[in-house]
Amino acid sequence: xxxxxxxxxxxxxxxxxxxxxxxxxxxxxxxxxxxxxxxxxxxxxxxxxxxxxxxxxxxxxxxxxxxxxxxxxxxxxxxxxxxxxxxxxxxxxxxxxxxxxxxxxxxxxxxxxxxxxxxxxxxxxxxxxxxxxxxxxxxxxxxxxxxxxxxxxxxxxxxxxxxxxxxxxxxxxxxxxxxxxxxxxxxxxxxxxxxxxxxxxx
Amino acid sequence: xxxxxxxxxxxxxxxxxxxxxxxxxxxxxxxxxxxxxxxxxxxxxxxxxxxxxxxxxxxxxxxxxx
Lengths: 202, 66
Fold this sequence. Notes:
The structure holds two protein chains of two kinds.
Chain A: H1 4-8, H2 12-16, H3 19-30, H4 33-49, H5 60-82, H6 117-120, H7 124-135, H8 139-149, H9 155-162, H10 166-187
Chain B: H1 7-17, H2 24-36, H3 38-56
């Protein structure tokens, strides 16, 4: 008489345990604690209501993140409705990015080789460094970037939600990548600062 | 030469290649440049790594992985 779906349905207590994880995810995207807490609260409520329908094909966490993404997008829509249209954002040519290059178009500071970056993904401290680097970006730039890479949205959707042109969107994502890689190189992959000092290539 | 890109132009295209399909001309230009440029080769793998890092966010934390 036990349905398989009943035995695998997560209890509210089990779901609650994922709250800190979900909050970090929502905070990275929304950059606003109360908006992030709202999104997580809505997620957990929706999950409790539909726990019986949890198919058990993915992990509970993956399932929750899937719900959270929808709630976070709702949150982004809400803030973009409240924000007055920004006349200054008409054409973002990315001139500020010139600082990364010399006059002849070469990198002003050559990107270094990063020592086994994939190992960083196993370190909690790396993600804290990544969060700090994201916080150092202009707000809209970080929002566009996390919509692209954290939420996995396509550029067209991002432009629509942020009310910007496609080319502005590409410039923003480019700015985010330039800023983040420079920041991570400086604060995490420091070639001169770590144990791999000796293996720097000329 | 339309195919001769600077690092500035190449890095912009490398980034856009993560977000849209590049044209054949852009692809050829990029391949010719990246093939001889260590800086842009590293830049390419670093922006790909950024994608992996955001996919893995928030990384290893809570012990329960269900």
